[in-house]
Design a protein that fits this description.
Largest sheet of chain C: 2 strands, antiparallel
Mean pLDDT of chain C: 91
Strand content of chain C: under 5%
Pfam family, one (chain B): Fer4_8
Strand content of chain B: 5-15%
Oligomer: heterotrimer
Number of helices of chain B: 10
Shape of chain B: elongated
Pathway (chain B): Carbohydrate metabolism; tricarboxylic acid cycle
Number of domains of chain B: 2
Cofactor (chain B): [3Fe-4S] cluster; [4Fe-4S] cluster; [2Fe-2S] cluster
Distance between the termini of chain B: 61 Å
Radius of gyration of chain C: 23 Å
Mean pLDDT of chain B: 94
Order of helices and strands of chain B: EEHEEEEEHHHHHHHHH
Number of domains of chain C: 1
Number of strands of chain B: 7
Radius of gyration of chain B: 21 Å
Largest interface: A-B, 66 and 59 residues
Bound molecules: flavin-adenine dinucleotide, iron/sulfur cluster, FE2/S2 (inorganic) cluster
Strand order of the largest sheet of chain B: 2-1-5-3-4
Distance between the termini of chain C: 70 Å
Domain 2Fe-2S ferredoxin-type (chain B): 5-92
Strand order of the largest sheet of chain C: 1-2
Helix content of chain B: 25-40%
CATH superfamily of the largest domain in chain B: Alpha-helical ferredoxin
Family (chain B): Belongs to the succinate dehydrogenase/fumarate reductase iron-sulfur protein family.
């Protein structure tokens, strides 16, 4: 079996993975990047709107404190405040750094990086390139990796001496030596051959879990591998009940259902209407946001030109609010013919402006749905988009509870609380990717000796099992049933009975998955790959459902029909999932959320905090304010 | 709405293989990739195909459909007659791994041969000031999703394997053009474009432009302007003389 | 980067598909039309050079303008000049034909057109070319294509002369159909000429900072607009010049003789 020794192995080549690998390599560590698809194709390419960073280029009132406040508000104060703080402070540097590596963002008149409006952000804050920001981000990082390789080639004669990409290679197990990480085991998708990494530090950057749902904006890669790998290695997952349903996914044709319609459509003037032609979002402004959003169409329309003196249109409320509103409109029978609502820019902007500002949306609708968005409205509906939950990490270093394990990006949890603001993910990838890379490098420096790998034979047997069975379950069918179940029973709106039912189905599917069989050889065999992914999807789905059942309130990406209100008591609690190494007995425990540091909580008005905090916490707040 | 479509798909490992016939259900609004997925789920679970975003953004699902390079996820079934037999083959210019999946490492090799963005040493991150008009040309080239269909269709290497070592291909010509037109790039790229990357092999027959799913005007906006810049540097005696007299480098 | 260990030779191979193309559309149509169009032009041009009826006051046939030999009729001479004396006995068209000919021959669009339709390199996209070896424009003679910009400089002169001819004709015979035909032809030729890629490069394409040269940038945007239609203007002017030329000759021969001719 192929075997490689590295200092740091980064699993995932999206924004977080690449940024982590670049950092580890810059700190002199021999680094491997492993990813399931080709280099440069990770899910990050799909991000459209932009990367949030309080550079203040468009509105100079913006700064990290405003960004911090917006992030906490968006996450309904469940965020890990230290992460939100680091994120708001460091995002501008990370974006500027990309520019020095060759990224070409859209510009302001005075030549700086232009920034656009997005839901939940008080000021125009998203650095962007048209509507293909993710592509720019990943390409820049990819080219930065290549630049480092060119440097290494000059110095050592081998471009891959210090940083190497293992593309189309899937990791199925993390290996340990006692308590600590000692490597990773996987297979080449192309050949089916196994590969072993011997490394004291592993950074997980595997993205999300959307493929457990039918209607999703996520690709096949999002089978929750990193979440599951961490769980199996003994790490903890937090906030798994919070899943972001993006309000605007395509609803037609069926084969593209779920594909994302970027939020910039609304940021640039698009409005939501129901079948009666009403801009229904005005009816759905929740109390906590009443003073920040326009109450009349006139005021909302004025806002696009004069943001200082008007409140923003309610179409730009945080995603969870908009998704629920659309859901409610459709349920009330005011939906569009294909079961969504109308999103219209055609009557709001001139055609040329639409094709300039939203080129890929124009292209996407033209090619896939035969709809010209400069002439007619789009039909959109909620789609499973992002998981706020993930591996519990230390904010400063990205370290998980297992020594040697680090996580960054969508696979890590805490930063976004119960709901992520648009644009906060791309900046999250950069900020915490870098921190995790540095954290891993620091950890390796502090080790007395390299750990040794164990458990290879078990990993091998587990991976080969589906090929050795004959006449077992068809993995495609098991997958499909899981997707339906999660979509219908643990979707946007949840109920206790439905979640319990989902858990029973998952339990049965787990049995069936154990019996999944794949025909064909080991060479590029998608049936086999799916059979192996099932373990991860089922494990993650179980965490989501179990946590969702426990949390008896509605907050952000978790809405309980039977507990519609937000509860200050629940805000203090995190739900933490763990499992046994064989993937059985997933348990969820409550853990207290640490209180916010005095100087940070002091950034908020008391009147705002009253909506979220318990009396006890408010007393702490008063004390903190008095002190300063 | 559904109907049964006839497909012929190239199947095999390495170079060896054959076209196999399938009959498969097609529903309204579907694209070729959907049909291939249905084949995977119902008839041939080990049929290999690369894909990722299913929205034309990642450039993974490049294949040849009825002989033309296309993205499987952006080729709607409604563009074909119901009675037509649709032939799907892997990209021809690269070695086959299995079925529709090819080994595109040639492109990553070439990517590494283009020197990276080289800003002046004294500009710090955050100090970059660029006008929109000055970055627009390069931005067009950065739309590239690396589907490698231009590389695949270019006859210089499609029909002449022996040219591969000397020719970087249209994808990397736009990369060179992007950097040469970047307001802050200071590296010399014209001479190498001709000498090392084989710009001269291109006979501007525009197939790369024809297949590009991002509608990048590869030939008109990158290759020909680069050829003209090369002429400045290498072939035009007047410009050469002028630069000697006025000591103008750029 | 998608390397694997121990590859067998077979895995290094392209798909063995033994047909030239699997395209099912009529891919041969475009090169066939191009071939026919260019051939027609060559045949016509060859005939026109040797045809002597190129002048009828106030029209001069574009293929023979400027007329620079003493054999040219008085009125046909450019500014009355005849730098080529009596010793020159060949048709005067030959003197200048190389300029527009060379311009079009080295034009980036026409290169595409004839490489595809005459040389079949390639005949159409994803259709294999019949040649065993290919070196493109890297060596003689094709490396000479790089002098295109010099032909462009000269083509501006030719374009202006044709415009001058047309304006002169219009002044002398405002109601003549021929004057208008010449004018349209001159306009199309100018559109073709100023849409040239070399022109685009010279106006501002070679600059890195458009924003520092607003006037040149403006010119570049205009040239770019023409350039985007370069293929269309290449064909339109190719036919217009043939039509204009033939028209003048037919008038000169007396074949066309209605009052407004
Ligand atoms: C359509 C869409 C639009 C979006 N728009 C925005 C936006 O405008 N702004 C914003 O901030 N966010 C946006 N997001 C969210 C954001 O793009 C993602 O959250 C982010 O890209 C995740 O990045 P990542 O680095 O964590 O992982 P990814 O980029 O998803 O990368 C995951 C990597 O892990 C690899 N991997 C996974 N499992 C394994 C395994 N078992 N073995 C080896 N490798 C593995 C994959 O191959 C891949 O390389 C959008 C998301 C979507 C889907
Ligand atoms: S224009 Fe040049 S690079 Fe593009 S396909 Fe043709 S020969 Fe290849
Ligand atoms: S330039 Fe166009 S065709 Fe070529 S790789 Fe990029 S997107 Fe694909
Ligand atoms: S799957 Fe991403 S481009 Fe087709
Ligand atoms: S005339 Fe066609 S490119 Fe110059």
């Amino acid at each position: 079996m192929e075997r490689h020794e590295y200092d740091v192995v980064v699993i995932g080549a999206g924004g977080a993975g690449l940024r982590a690998a670049i950092e580890a390599r810059q700190q002199g560590k021999r680094t491997a990047i492993v990813c399931k698809s080709l280099f440069g194709k990770a899910h990050t390419v799909m991000a459209e709107g932009g990367a949030a960073a309080a550079m203040g280029n468009v509105n100079s009132s913006d700064n990290w404190m405003v960004h911090f406040r917006d992030t906490m508000r968006g996450g309904k104060f469940l965020n890990n405040w230290r992460m939100a703080e680091l994120h708001a402070k460091e995002a501008p540097d990370r974006v500027w750094e990309l520019e020095a590596w060759g990224a070409l963002f859209d510009r302001t008149k005075d030549g700086k990086i232009s920034q656009r409006n997005f839901g939940g952000h008080e000021y125009p804050r998203l650095a962007h390139v048209g509507d293909r920001t993710g592509l720019e981000l990943i390409r820049t990082l990819q080219q930065r990796v290549v630049a480092l390789q060119q440097e290494d080639e000059k110095l050592h004669g081998d471009p891959e001496a210090y940083i190497k990409v293992f593309a189309e290679c899937t990791i199925t197990r993390l290996l340990k030596d006692g308590d600590a990480i000692s490597g990773a085991f996987g297979y080449w998708r192309e050949t089916g051959d196994f590969i072993l990494f011997d490394a004291p530090a592993v950074v997980l950057a595997t993205g999300g879990i959307g493929k457990s749902y039918v209607v999703t904006s996520n690709s096949w890669e999002y089978t929750g591998d990193g979440h599951a790998l961490a769980l199996l290695a003994g790490a903890k997952l937090i906030n798994m009940e919070f899943i972001q349903f993006h309000p605007t996914g395509m609803v037609w044709p069926p084969s593209v259902r779920g594909i994302l319609v970027t939020e910039s459509v609304r940021g640039d003037g698009g409005v939501l209407r129901n079948s009666e032609g009403r801009r229904f979002m005005f009816d759905y402004i929740p109390d906590v946001f009443k003073d920040k959003y326009a109450t009349t169409e006139e005021e909302a329309d004025r806002w696009y030109d004069d943001q200082a003196n008007n409140r923003r249109p309610p179409e730009l409320l945080p995603r969870d609010e908009v998704a629920r509103a659309i859901n409610a409109e459709v349920k009330a029978g005011r939906g569009s013919p294909q079961g969504g609502v109308f999103l219209d820019v055609s009557t709001r902007l001139p055609a040329a402006e639409i094709t300039r500002r939203l080129p890929s949306m124009h292209h996407q609708f033209k090619e896939l749905a035969d709809v010209d968005i400069t002439k007619e409205p789009m039909q959109v509906g909620p789609t499973c988009h992002y998981i706020m939950g993930g591996v519990e990490v230390d904010a400063d270093t990205g370290a998980a509870s297992v020594p040697g394990l680090f996580a960054a990006g969508e696979v890590s949890g805490g930063m976004h609380g119960s709901n992520r603001l648009g644009g906060n993910s791309l900046s999250d990838l950069l900020v915490f990717g870098r921190r995790a890379g540095a954290g891993a490098a620091g950890y390796v420096d502090g080790l007395a000796k390299r750990p040794s790998v164990t458990g290879v034979e078990e990993a091998k047997a587990e991976a080969l099992a589906p090929l050795e069975r004959t006449g077992g379950e068809n993995p495609y069918e098991v997958h499909h049933e899981l997707q339906r179940t999660m979509n219908d029973l643990v979707g946007i709106i949840r109920k206790s009975e439905e979640i319990s039912e989902a858990l029973q189905v998952v339990e049965k599917l787990k049995e069936r998955a154990k019996n999944a069989a794949s025909s064909g050889s080991r060479i590029y065999n998608p049936g086999w790959h799916l059979a192996l992914d099932l373990r991860n999807m089922l494990l993650v789905s179980e965490c989501v459902a179990k946590a969702a059942l426990l949390r008896e309130e509605s907050r952000g990406g978790h809405t309980r029909d039977d507990f519609p209100g937000m509860s200050a008591g629940w805000r203090r609690k995190l739900l933490v999932c763990s499992a046994k190494p064989d993937g059985t007995s997933v348990t969820v425990e409550e853990r207290a959320q640490p209180s916010m540091r005095g100087d940070l909580i002091g950034l908020f008005e008391r009147s705002e905090l009253e909506k979220y905090l318990t009396e006890e916490e408010l007393a702490e707040y008063d004390a903190a304010v008095k002190e300063s | 709405m559904g109907y049964k479509a006839k497909f012929r798909i190239w199947r095999g490992e390495g170079g060896e293989g054959r076209l196999e016939d399938f009959t498969v259900e097609v529903n309204e609004g579907e694209v070729v990739l959907d049909v291939i997925h249905r084949l995977q789920a119902t008839q041939t679970p080990d049929l290999a195909v690369r894909w990722n975003c299913k929205a034309g953004k990642c450039g993974s699902c490049s294949m040849e459909i009825n002989g033309r390079p296309r993205l499987g996820c952006m080729t709607r079934m409604s563009t074909f007659e119901e009675s037509e037999t649709i032939t799907v083959t892997p990209l021809r210019t690269f070695p086959v791994i299995k079925d529709l999946v090819t080994d595109v490492s040639f492109n990553y090799q070439k990517a590494r041969e283009v020197p990276s963005f080289t800003p002046p040493a004294d500009v710090k991150p955050g100090e970059y000031r660029m006008q929109q008009v000055d970055v627009e040309r390069s931005q067009e080239f950065r739309k590239c999703i690396e589907c490698f269909m231009c590389q695949n269709v270019c006859h210089v290497i499609r029909d002449h394997e022996e040219n591969k070592p000397n020719f970087s291909g249209p994808r990397y010509f736009i990369r060179i053009a992007e950097l040469d037109m970047h307001p802050y790039d200071v590296a010399e790229r014209k001479e190498p474009a001709q000498e090392e990357h084989g710009l001269g092999y291109c006979n501007i027959t525009k197939c790369c432009t024809e297949v590009c799913p991002e509608h990048i005007k590869i030939t008109d906006n990158a290759i020909i302007p680069m050829k003209e810049r090369v002429v400045d540097r290498k072939y035009d005696p007047l410009v050469w003389l002028g630069s000697k007299i006025f000591k103008r480098q750029r | 980067m998608t390397q694997t260990t121990a590859e067998s030779a077979a895995r290094k191979q392209r798909a063995q598909i033994r047909v030239r193309t699997l395209r099912t559309d009529r891919w041969w149509l475009a090169p066939a039309f191009t071939f026919a169009g260019l051939l027609l032009f060559l045949i016509y041009g060859f005939w026109a050079i040797f045809d002597k009826s190129y002048f009828v006051d106030p029209y001069i046939a574009p293929f023979s303008s400027p007329c620079l030999a003493t054999s040219c009729p008085e009125g046909a001479r450019l500014f009355g000049l005849a730098p080529f004396g009596d010793w020159y006995t060949l048709p005067p068209g030959i003197l200048i034909l190389g300029l527009p000919g060379g311009f079009r021959l080295t034009c980036y669009y026409y290169r595409k057109a004839y490489y595809r339709s005459f040389w079949l390199s390639p005949p159409a996209c994803a259709v294999a070319e019949p040649h065993g070896k290919y070196t493109g424009e890297t060596r003689l003679p094709l490396i000479l294509q790089n002098i295109h910009r010099y032909f462009f400089y000269l083509a501006i002169v030719i374009g202006l002369i044709l415009t001058y001819d047309a304006v002169l004709a219009l002044v002398h015979k405002p109601a003549g159909l021929g004057s208008w035909i010449l004018l349209v032809n001159a306009a199309l030729i100018l559109c073709y000429t100023f849409g040239c890629h070399s022109c685009r490069h010279i106006t501002a394409g070679r600059l890195t900072h458009f924003s520092r040269h607003p006037l040149r940038y403006k010119a570049w945007t205009l040239v770019s607009k023409l350039n985007a239609r370069h293929q269309k203007f290449a064909w339109a002017s190719l036919f217009s010049v043939m039509i204009a030329d033939l028209y003048v000759r037919l008038v000169a021969m007396g074949v066309i003789n209605f009052p407004f001719a």
